[in-house]
Amino acid sequence: MSDLALPAPVARLLGLPGLDYLLRLALASPFLISGVVKLLDFSGATAEVAELGVQPAVPVAALVVATQLVGSVLFLTRRWCWLGAGLLAGFTVVATLLAHAFWLVDGPERGRQTATFFEHVAIVGGLLGAAVFAGRDGVRR
Known about the structure:
By secondary structure, this protein is mainly α. The chain is 74% helix and 0% strand. It is built from six helices and no strands. It is globular, with a radius of gyration of 18 Å.
């Protein structure tokens, strides 16, 4: 099976220095922002965890903050990108199942929760895809 050649402009764009980092930064930004906000308002983070019925809320909230911040930092490195992606993807799966259980609601809320659930599935796919590409020496041309 042969590789399909990328159009020259696409290959040049994908070969730009630092583009992979900017793309990973874009994917990490919701986790970084959320982690910082939760750190600055830890009582709010604890209340958010408790509202989901997860106990003990304080250590779980601390774990959430640590996972979001450490996972993001690791995801932004080449060497540990795979680990950061795994942490953030695992966190996203658990948080999505807890906070966006669309199968438990009816009416218009079901549609909103379904859309949010699958947006989070897409984020997990993006994290894992970025980790795969970060591990490569370069883009195939």
